[in-house]
Model the fold of this input.
Amino acid sequence: MQKRDVVIIGGGPAGLAAAAELKKRGVDDILIIEREKQLGGILRQCIHDGFGLTRFGQTLSGPEYSQRFIDQVKEMQIEVLTNATVIDLTDDKIVTADTRDGLLQVQARAIILTMGCRERTRGALAIPGQRPSGIYNAGVAQSYMNLYNTMVGKEIIIMGSGDIGLIMARRMTLEGAHVKAVFEVLPYPSGLPRNIEQCLNDYNIPLYLSHSVINIKGDTRIEGVTVAEVGPDMKPIPGTEKDFTCDTLVLSVGLIPENELSLAAGVTLDGRTKGAFVDENFQTDVPGVFAAGNVLHVHDLVDFVSLEAEALAAGVNEYLNSDEVAPCDIEIETDRNIGHIIPQKVSGEKNFRMSMRVRKPMGRCKIIVSQGDNTVKSTIVPNAIPAEMIQFDVAADKIMSNEKIEVSVYEQ
Amino acid sequence: MGTQYDIVVIGGGVVGSAVARELSRYQLKICVLEKELDVCNGVSGRNTGLLHSGILHEKNLLRTECCMEGNAEFEQVASELDVPFKRCGKLIVGFGEEEKKRLEGLYQRGLENEIPGIKMIDHDEIKSLDPNIDGDFAIYVPSAGILCPFTYTIALAENAVENGAEYYFDHEVTGVEKDEEGLFHISTNGGEFVTRWVVNCAGLYAFRISEMLGFEAYVPNRIKGEYEILDKKAGNFLSMPVYPTPNESGAFDVHVTPTIDGNVLVGPTIETIGTKIDYAVTQKMIDVLVEQGSRMFSRMNRDYYIRNYVGVFPTIEDPETHKEMDFQIQTKESAPHAVNLVCINSPGLTSALPLARRVVEKVKAQEELTANEKFNPIRKGIVKFADQDEEGKQRLIEQDPDYGEIYCRCECVTRAEVKQALHNVLGVSTISGVKYRTRASMGRCQGGYCETRLTQMVQEELGKQKEEILLNKNGAYMFTGEVK
Amino acid sequence: MNSRTFVCIVCPNGCTIETQYEGDKILSVTGNKCKKGIEYVRQELIDPRRTISSTVRIEGAELPLCSVRLTNVIPKKDIFRVMEEINKIKLTAPVSIGQVVIKNVCGLDSDVIVTKNMG
Done:
């Protein structure tokens, strides 16, 4: 069996950034395993621009953004195995991958989980109706259109206002399809405001908030949907049903971190993020197994994925040097306004970055991080919305004890 | 006019395919006419996937007789046809005195039917069988089992074809005429078929074919049942099917069943829909599934939802008794050489081969059949990468490097399996056809990862244009063309 | 005097900017986190501009399409005219990021460039 210091599962933005940063920190024995034939992960199909403003101060398309990391990885001669799918991972860090050259088994000292996420499907939502063809998840439609030159339809209804759905509304319009409307079950958009503006408003595509698709019609190809307004309980309001014809229904209804391998390795998942519980080093509760990027929690900007993976590399390096990281026993708890938070545990010895999302749009807010009566951090967010991840740094010297840390959001 | 057949089987469901397979033991020119683009598209593919024991129906019914015969022989069938199956047993659980009475009635019937090994067990015995199952008491039916209806029907059809039978998909029977020589002229949207014998295995449409053949004009009173499929993660918590005590009208409410592939099925709900065929999932029944399903299976959880589906069962009411009619295998003097199977619903999957043998007997009663000496009962399925241990996996990749490329991550299906599925002996080329042969896209991401690969491969391997790729039926096109 | 609300698309912050203006003269701006917001609003009032991304056919590469984008924003009203030009392009591998596919597309002072290394 091969032995490696680090095996990185997934060669998307998180995996690539982690690899390059590890190498910079002097870790040499790294293997990236990627299931696609090319590196880059989901960015391969994200041909729109807007990537890299934070990281490079430039607005790039997805493939350009990822190429910068791919180039680094190549220059640093980090070993990459593409077209290889990891099919098993054990808690003692043995990776099994399926490759055309045979079953590959590697014993790693540290594992980095950067598998990304998948889309929530029609089935997961249990949308009533028939089961015709022509129902696509937004990311699948994106892959068909941007990679495989395949047009999925012409008369489009979009359910959900997630960013990929918005991006696809514009993309399909530019390529000659007619996007009739976007329906969002929540009273506010799930995607970023700038995408509502430049992907929907620019092309006069109506967005209906508090609306849901309640029936799908079509015996063979989809012929239409029934949409209804929903009340505060998210249930359809009788009498508000409206029929729309379409030949395609695109779903952009959320992303789920892809953690099947993490579970195989015995990693405990947080029901809120659907990703691992991690400490400030991004180490999961299985020693030596680390996670970052969308497999940990779904990001809205790839720039933050890269930054998170780079921060992870520091923790991995520390682990490789001493076979452990400083114990992280301080639990982080949140109030009800917060959907989730990363990390969930810290040592109190290191500065760290906190990432969180609010549950509902809250406008101008004050976020207070406290330990008992001691305020560890207080910060103002001008406009807190669930679509945008909120990040801020917390200084270790403000953490006074091993008592739990509480994070609260107050509307201003 | 084309070839003349000895026997035409109408309907490529599990029964039609079993009939074709059993007939292929003889020197006969056989074909199966199927209106859909693949086998197992009607009743056969929309049920619970259970190998029934025979406890659910009264003794002396053809249903019960065929079911018990089919149940008893299934180890052999499964090994001949390479169909995964598990005799996992089943529990019919109850709570309280009222249910106990009803359950004891059912237990008595089980004893009368001589269902092997059935036992009344108490709460502790239930828990020792499966700690996740709850009940004050239960009937334990050890002979019940689970199998995949698609795999089984495909296996029967492939074995029939390997032994000389032909399948015509996209051939809907529109009329049957008989000439002076007694030959049947069957009209379809794909041309006329001339045959000496006809077997009606048309499932939901059997009543219509029955009329065409000159048998009774039945009026279907169909039952619709909705199901929810749960993630394999839920499958870890259920070792055998769990039924509630039958309700006062003797019907079973929602039950939970592990599938042979490791998922959990919740359902069916029961709704009488008369002459309609309606495959739409409804919010109302989704709510029923959640409510009743959670009672049967405490692990039921929204996070586990993968997909919903609907089964429609071809029930016919006996006009005299108003009870559900028994399985019918009819012949009649005025229509010799026609065998009419109607009202074949549950337990049709378990009963398929016993029914097929009875059809053969009907033919034999009128003419002598010569054995097909080349008949081979053995059919091999696609070797599944996911089912192998490490050594087995390694060996497969060495034999065919396409086993080294995972196409469906959720179900761990490789390129090699998809390729084999696309070159199936039945000539099926739909995306659902690949799915039912490999399980690609049947997992939690529902094709999010593999569907682009599957459709790409249909283009590469079968030379199809994008617009020609179909999900499952004519008209169910996947794409409108190219972007550029 | 008119007032209008803009959502700035310059960066992911997506600031909501309240503006009061008279013709193309801006009287007041609130809600922007940076100066780029004022510039954005000014541009939106006189001549809204956008950049676009798309794909073009490519021969001899693993995949049939290569991604492209504009190097500079173009007037919103010209987007579909530029798309027509992009749709005419066929590339042959190899191509690399930054390679100009159409120089000064439609005379709009923006180039169409390749955004993916292929072949």
In short: Chain B touches chain C at residues 483-484 (CB under 8 Å).
